[in-house]
Specification:
globular, mainly alpha, cell membrane, 235 residues, two-stranded antiparallel ribbon, 8 helices
C-alpha cells in the first residue's frame, strides 16, 4: 500500500521530531508529504479536467459570479476545518470539481473563437512547464520563500477586488493588467507553497494540494486571458 493510501484517512498521520522545544521535519517526513501532495494534486487535476471537459461537451451553464464565490469559499472553509479528518479528501475533490465546472463555460467560449483551441493548448502547456520548472528549482535549491506569504496573500485580495470591480467597469485593458498580476502572484504562490513543504512549514498534504491547485488554476486562467487578448489583437 502506498504512503498516500496509508495516510489518506488522516492527512497528518506522521509526527515531526522535536529538539530544543522547536519542531523540525525529518527528510523522510518531507518526502512523504511531497509524495502525497503530488499524488493528490495529479488526481484532482485529472478530475477537474474531466469535469471541465464534461461541462464543454454538455454545454453546462456557467455557475455565475455569486455562486462561484460562495461555493469556492464555502468549500475552502470546509476543507480547512476538516483538514485532519477523512472528510478532507472528498471535500478537496468537491472543490476541484466545482472549479472544473466553472472553467468549462470559459473554455467553451474560447473554443468558439478563431484559434481558440490553440490558445487553450498554449496556456495549458505554459502552465505545466512553469509548474515543473518552479518545482524543480525549489526542490533542487531548497530556498525558503516563506517571506513572500503576506505580500502574495494581500496581492491576491487586491486582484480579486479589482476583478470583481471590472465586471461592471468592463475595461479590457484593466482586465489584461489584472490577469498579468494574477499570473505573477500565482507563480509566487507556487514557489511559496512548494518551499513551505520542502522546508517543513507545511505538514498537511491536503492543504498543500489545495494551495498548489488553486495557484495552477489561477495561472492557467490568467494565461488564457493574456494569450486570448494577444490573439485577438493580432486579428
Amino acid at each position: 500500500m502506498s504512503d498516500f493510501q496509508r495516510s489518506s484517512a488522516s492527512p497528518t498521520t506522521w509526527t515531526p521530531a522535536t529538539a530544543g522545544g522547536s519542531v523540525f521535519s525529518q527528510p523522510g517526513d518531507v518526502a512523504r508529504v511531497l509524495r502525497n501532495t503530488y499524488a493528490l494534486l495529479s488526481m484532482t487535476l485529472l478530475f477537474s479536467g474531466g469535469v471541465a471537459a464534461a461541462a464543454v461537451a454538455f454545454q453546462w451553464p456557467a455557475p455565475g459570479m455569486l455562486l462561484t464565490l460562495v461555493g469556492y469559499f464555502a468549500l475552502l472553509f470546509g476543507i480547512h476545518r476538516m483538514r485532519n479528518s477523512a472528510m478532507a479528501i472528498p471535500l478537496v475533490f468537491a472543490l476541484t470539481g466545482f472549479m472544473g465546472w466553472s472553467l468549462g463555460p470559459l473554455l467553451s467560449l474560447y473554443l468558439k473563437l478563431p484559434g481558440g483551441a490553440n490558445t487553450i493548448a498554449l496556456a495549458l502547456a505554459t502552465t505545466g512547464g512553469t509548474f515543473l520548472a518552479l518545482s524543480a528549482y525549489v526542490l533542487a535549491t531548497k530556498k525558503d520563500f516563506s517571506f513572500m506569504g503576506g505580500f502574495l496573500f494581500a496581492g491576491m485580495i487586491v486582484a480579486l477586488l479589482a476583478a470583481v470591480a471590472n465586471i461592471w467597469l468592463q475595461m479590457p485593458v484593466m482586465g489584461l493588467v489584472i490577469s498579468g498580476v494574477v499570473a505573477l502572484l500565482s507563480i509566487g504562490l507556487i514557489l511559496f507553497e512548494t518551499s513551505n513543504i520542502v522546508n517543513g512549514g507545511e505538514r498537511n498534504y491536503v492543504m498543500a494540494t489545495v494551495g498548489l491547485f488553486v495557484s495552477l488554476f489561477n495561472l492557467f486562467t490568467s494565461l488564457l486571458s493574456i494569450f486570448g487578448f494577444a490573439g485577438s489583437s493580432d486579428d
